């Protein structure tokens, strides 16, 4: 009982202390005065770009005021403020800029001001409504090739797997005043098929390029940037030179934890190595050690590097359970300057790491 009574007494005194501090904090008279706490920009146009408003804070104390920090709640809002001390009776400006780009509709943002005088934390607010700009054909299709506009010259499939073929559609637009006919002829690898719809594209009309990508025919893992040329009957720029982008990974069917435990597993002693400071022109080598900590034999399908300045040497492609192997990476620094970050990727039959990256770093001196 005595312990319970003692606990109640302690809690009572703690609560009294907190309440007393709150009352004391609220009783401290303000020593700075803001001319306004909120500003409404009303309706603004996205096309007009950035808008600004200036908040004023007056030092009504007998001490020098310092605005220690001014932080916005969003990257679209940027505050600017005076870093110098504000003498008694003087005022400071806080300019708040709001960028409406790609932000149509209502907005309500806060700016937190921390100062050396009470109130030491103050919340300002800006609001308004952004009228979206009208989207032009040039905005929707920024890449121009003759009379045809594309969203990009890079037709990106993203990451795909060896499981099946993938078909994607890429929009195009005939901006010219002439009818444009697409040829059946294309220049590409045998791993893709191309179909333009419609073949005859009338002026100021949209169409599409439908591309089917066959990873099993490509038969190569990793990142790929392949050329694709499409032909039209235009007099100027009849050939449309495009880039087909894809990253291909080996497909593994879904597995339970029990099934995964029976698979091969690659494990590096280190996944990153920094040569630190090296002389330009030097060829430097590091050996990475990795182990198969899984149950089945680990097979290294391919080894690829992000730069032709790297060469690799793999001790063996098949690593039994419990065995280790070496991967030697040589970095030729000829023609390189400053900080370097390069990547080597091992493609494996480990379903949890079908593409394993290791990183090489260095700072190349002249």
From TrEMBL:
TM region(s), chain numbering: none
Gene3D superfamilies: Immunoglobulins
Pfam families xrefs: DUF1573
InterPro entries on file: DUF1573, Ig-like_fold
Taxonomic lineage of the native organism: Bacteria, Pseudomonadati, Bacteroidota, Cytophagia, Cytophagales
Protein name (Swiss-Prot/TrEMBL): DUF1573 domain-containing protein
